[in-house]
């Protein structure tokens, strides 16, 4: 359902600017009477960017890094929800994450088919869309401060990992596999660390992309309007 | 080079998926470790039969297995994303 909403939002936004041709049809009351038939040039470029971001997110999710200072060995990998949202936008990010997770489940037997919906909910909706909301909130809260954007990206990325972990715990506890409290503490112990890695990576990657003038989502720019 | 393009970023993704992934840690990730400590199983058991399970291609030398799996995965992600976008958003080049 959330994915369908994202599809509608993205599709609508694709046709916002530079419509090439429109065709009139008898719309339902309240619906737009004009439906563009062809994709705008900017829409085609955004699809290209979504593909690239999907490739990057997949590639970086493959790299597991052992957390320092943990007994027995725990590794973490990037999730990339906030990273994707800052480049292509929150709802596009949800689609990107869904595609990446689906490929992981179907092709690599990672994550599992039955858990795919939960994974999309945790890492796509909570991690991506929620993380983006966090970014906007923190950024607005710090207004014109010089490091508002960097701080906002850091907070959003860290919170997206921790929130995704909390949601996973909620879902697992709801299905009754383990007691909620102990599972939450164990899960958070690891994901607080993973979140720091994710946050540092996201800040670094976005700064690098901006330095080399790769187009980011409009609100993610240094001077951009936080809206 | 003072401007990153789609091509550069795809190259980055490719090199990470085929090269950096070799250095990937084999320790269980946060969720798997929690599952182990709490002795519950996630539903990972219900997975489709695939030649790429656990990011290693079956039937090729160990040294190549992960890189090839990464390459195939990248192609799959790109194809799925582009295909889905094309279907959903009517890409028709005039």
Question: What labels would you give this structure?
Answer:
heterodimer, A: 227 residues, mainly alpha, two-stranded antiparallel ribbon, globular, B: 94 residues, extended
Kindly summarize this structure in a few lines.
With 227 residues, chain A is mainly α.
Query: Radius of gyration of chain B, rounded?
Result: 18 Å
Main sheet attributes: strand count, strand direction, barrel closure of chain B = none
Summarize the biggest pleated sheet of chain A: 2 strands, antiparallel
> In which order are the strands of the major sheet of chain A placed?
1-2
First and last CA, distance of chain A? 25 Å
Averaged pLDDT of chain B, please?
76
Please bin the fraction of helical residues of chain B: 40-55%
Q: Please tally the helical runs of chain A, counting DSSP H or I stretches of 4 or more residues.
A: 7
**Using DSSP, what is the number of strands of chain B?**
0
H-E order of chain A = HEEHEEHHHHH
End-to-end separation of chain B in angstroms reads: 32 Å
Strand content of chain B: under 5%
Briefly note the structural class of the backbone of chain B.
mainly alpha
In the predicted model, the low-confidence regions of chain B spanning at least 5 consecutive residues are none
The strand count of chain A comes to 4
Mean of all residue-level pLDDT scores of chain A? 80
Q: State which percent range the strand residues of chain A make up.
A: under 5%
Work out the largest interface and the residue count of each chain.
A-B, 67 and 64 residues
Helical fraction of chain A: 55-70%
What pattern of helices and strands is seen along the backbone of chain B? HHH
Helix tally of chain B equals: 3
């Amino acid at each position: 359902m959330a994915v369908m909403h994202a599809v509608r939002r993205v599709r609508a936004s694709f046709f916002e600017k530079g419509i090439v041709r429109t065709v009139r049809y008898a719309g339902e009351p309240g619906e737009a009477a004009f439906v563009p038939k062809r994709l705008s040039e900017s829409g085609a470029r955004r699809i290209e960017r979504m593909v690239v971001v999907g490739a990057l997110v997949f590639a970086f999710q493959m790299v597991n890094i052992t957390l320092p200072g943990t007994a027995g060995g725990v590794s973490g990998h990037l999730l990339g929800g906030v990273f994707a949202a800052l480049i292509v936008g929150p709802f596009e990010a949800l689609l990107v994450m869904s595609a990446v997770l689906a490929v992981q489940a179907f092709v690599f037997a990672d994550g599992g088919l039955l858990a795919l919906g939960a994974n999309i909910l945790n890492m796509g909706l909570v991690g991506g869309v929620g993380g983006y909301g966090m970014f906007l909130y923190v950024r607005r809260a710090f207004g014109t401060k010089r490091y508002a954007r960097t701080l906002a990206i850091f907070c959003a990325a860290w919170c997206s990992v921790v929130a995704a972990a909390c949601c996973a715990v909620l879902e697992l506890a709801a299905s009754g596999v383990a007691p909620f409290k102990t599972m939450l503490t164990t899960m958070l112990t690891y994901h607080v660390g993973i979140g720091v890695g994710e946050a540092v990576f996201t800040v670094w990657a976005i700064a690098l992309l901006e330095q080399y003038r790769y187009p980011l989502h409009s609100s993610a720019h240094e001077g951009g309007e936080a809206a | 080079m003072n401007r990153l393009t789609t091509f550069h970023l795809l190259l980055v993704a490719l090199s990470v998926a085929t090269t950096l992934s070799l250095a990937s840690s084999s320790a269980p990730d946060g969720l798997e470790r929690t599952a182990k400590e709490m002795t519950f199983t996630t539903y990972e058991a219900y997975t489709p039969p695939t030649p790429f399970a656990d990011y290693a291609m079956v039937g090729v030398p160990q040294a190549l297995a992960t890189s090839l799996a990464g390459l195939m995965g990248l192609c799959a992600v790109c194809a799925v994303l582009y295909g889905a976008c094309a279907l959903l958003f009517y890409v028709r080049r005039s």
